Amino acid sequence: MVRLIVQRFMQLLLLLLGISFLVFMSMHIAPGDPATIIGGPNATESDLEAIRESLGLNQPVLVQYVDYLAGLFQGDLGYSYQTKQAVSDAIVSRFPATIKLATASMIVAIIIGVIAGMVSARKQNSWLDVTSTTFALAGVSIPNFWLGAMLILIFSVNLQVLPVGGLNSPFYTVDGIKELILPAITLGTASAALIARMTRSSMLEVIRSDYIRTARAKGVRKHSLIWIHALKNAMIPVITVIGINFGGLLGGTIITEQVFAINGIGRLMIDAIAARDFPVVQGTVLLVAGIFVFVNLVVDVIYALIDPRISY
């Protein structure tokens, strides 16, 4: 297990290095000049040159990248071109809202997905199975921005039972929970659909296994058969989907944060891309990539805890 963690940590460093290079180069190759945006429409050419020199943008791209890596290895993500704020401070101030939204969305997805998948597997080819399958198809097909707008229209505008957006209250308060409901459902619906389909197929495979038939023949109660014997083994592939989707939720909060006016990493990234704020974009992408790889490492560790047959 220790060897696995060390190997994955080295892979994480190499992956982040490659991502930093791709993001850095793509931002510099893309059209648009940060100096023009910072200087404004009335800036002269000499003003633009002074801005580029102060930001180091007049140097060759590879030299800029080496300087960026030197600061990165020292824990320095740079400073925002727009606000002059340290990128690490900007991320720290915005990250709690994103992690709160992603965690709540994952909880919603797990609860809905696992229950729907288990019910669908136990009642195969019944109306419950058809309903669950239809829900899974709709959840994957419906765009987040449309679903979020519809939920706001119904529950915020018409019924006026939930707030329109923003995560300004502590999550452990009633107001904080109300603020999380609509964005969590919006972001977690697609993941819930994938988890439901994976749970259903995995449960059907496990239920047809020989050891389940043996337990049923010995007179094991149906409730114990499903929740104790079948569910634990069926959850192994489901955990993979959950881990991958959680990493994807962190990077997929952009649209949901825009719809619900949540000041998280997603909105920070969008604003930085529009302003050609290279350091902020690079810092947010590295953060999301690092968390994604870390979540996959945690999933591998959970494998070994759930299934003793798996050994690293």
From TrEMBL:
Transmembrane residue ranges: 101-121, 133-160, 180-199, 234-255, 285-306
Cell membrane recorded as keyword: yes
Localization, UniProt: Cell membrane
Domain ABC transmembrane type-1 stretches: 95-303
Cross-referenced Gene3D superfamilies: MetI-like
PROSITE patterns, sorted: ABC_TM1
Membrane topology field: Multi-pass membrane protein
Pfam families, alphabetized: BPD_transp_1 (PF00528), BPD_transp_1_N (PF19300)
Keyword rRNA processing among record annotations: no
Entries under CDD domains matching the protein: TM_PBP2 (cd06261)
The entry's keywords: Cell membrane, Ion transport, Membrane, Nickel, Nickel transport, Transmembrane, Transmembrane helix, Transport
PANTHER family (alphabetical): DIPEPTIDE TRANSPORT SYSTEM PERMEASE PROTEIN DPPB-RELATED
Subunit description: The complex is composed of two ATP-binding proteins (NikD and NikE), two transmembrane proteins (NikB and NikC) and a solute-binding protein (NikA).
Family in the record: Belongs to the binding-protein-dependent transport system permease family. OppBC subfamily.
Protein name: Nickel import system permease protein NikB
Organism: Oceanobacillus kimchii
